[in-house]
Amino acid sequence: MPKPRIYIETTIPSYLTARKSHDILVAAHQQITGEWWTLRRQNFDLFTSELVWKKPDSETPTPPDDGWLLLRGIPLLDLTPAVRRLAGRFLAGGLIPAKAADDALHVAFATAHGMDLLLTWNCRHIANAEIIARLADAAAEFGHRLPVLCTREPLMGG
What pLDDT, in 10s, does the model give residues 92-113? Predict the structure, then answer.
């Protein structure tokens, strides 16, 4: 049986590599992300995109710094016309606001490339129960199935 395919969104390596936060919620996210990375990631085929390497104030990807080397070897998905069309649909439909265009691209990467899951801590524009059904409908318009958009809790196993 093949392993489930997971798209790793930017918040995951951010939490894995950031200095421990004094904010209790962020610190908890950091800890449980680290636990998943250590204990469970080998049960999945991981993928990401060059978008994960893009600095927030830049339009171009930059090589990872030492802290992000943990993603070395994880295949990068291509920015295809299908990814661009889906992201455009998510934005044009107002499902994801224009100011969060990178979030639309992450969802589009995972969707267009047939990922089973998208792992994120972004619950504002990605793992948001209020918009997931509408994102799924938009993906279906283009003949795609929306992956499960989730935080790491559902992925800890039994």
Answer: 989 999 999 999 999 999 999 9
* Cβ neighbours for 110, distance < 8 A, ≥ 6 positions apart: 7, 9, 117, 118, 147
| pLDDT the model gives residue 95 | 92
Distance CA 142, CA 117 (A): 18
What per-residue confidence (pLDDT) applies to 154? 57
How far lies 28's CA from each of 21, 41, 64, in Å?
9, 18, 24
Structural domains in the chain, sorted by start: 5-155 (3.40.50)
How crowded is residue 93: how many other Cβ atoms within 10 Å of its Cβ? 14
Angstrom distance (rounded) from CA 120 to CA 81? 23
Give the whole-angstrom CA distance, residue 92 versus residue 79. Answer: 19
DSSP conformational letter for 86 = H
